[in-house]
Structures are given as C-alpha cells and as structure tokens.
Amino acid sequence: MSLAIELEQEDDGRWFGIISDLPSVMAYGPTREEAAAATRLLAMKVLAERIEHGEDVPDAVADLFAVRS
Predict the structure, then answer these.
(1) What is the rounded CA–CA span in Å between residue 65 and residue 67?
(2) CA dist 50 to 10, 14, 33, 44, 64, Å?
(3) Which end of the chain, N or C, is less packed with Cβ atoms under 10 Å?
(4) Cα–Cα distance for residue pair 66/19, rounded to 1 Å
(5) CA distance 22 to 48
(6) Backbone φ, ψ for residue 42 (5° rounding)
(7) Is the dihedral of CA 42, 27, 29, 33 positive or negative?
(8) Tens digits of per-residue pLDDT, 5-60?
C-alpha cells in the first residue's frame, strides 16, 4: 500500500500536489518534480506530528512501522 501524490498544474503554470489520504497535505512548486518533493516533505512532517501526538495515521504508514516481536 502507498500514499499516492496527485499532481495538477494551475492556470498560472505552478504545480501542486495533494495526498487524498492526508487531507491537510497540499504543496506547491514551480515544476512538477518540485511540487512532488514539497508534497512528500510536508506529508512526512504531518505524519511525524501525528505519530508524536498519538493520532491515527493511514494504514500504509502503520504497516510500514509495524512492531514485530
């Protein structure tokens, strides 16, 4: 499972990325690649905050960091 980044281009040429599974994540960049990188970085920050505060994270993240005995 993964967290997909959806990229779109604005009328003014800027790109933005969103992650549907993380509604608070949306970031802009002048190019498609920079928007993807900015979105990825913001998603990591949001996920770290959620984990730090004991909040829920998407299954894709919980599975990635599953505790094994």
Answers:
(1) 6
(2) 30, 29, 26, 10, 15
(3) C
(4) 22
(5) 12
(6) -65, -40
(7) positive
(8) 999 999 999 999 999 999 899 999 999 999 999 999 999 999 999 999 999 998 88
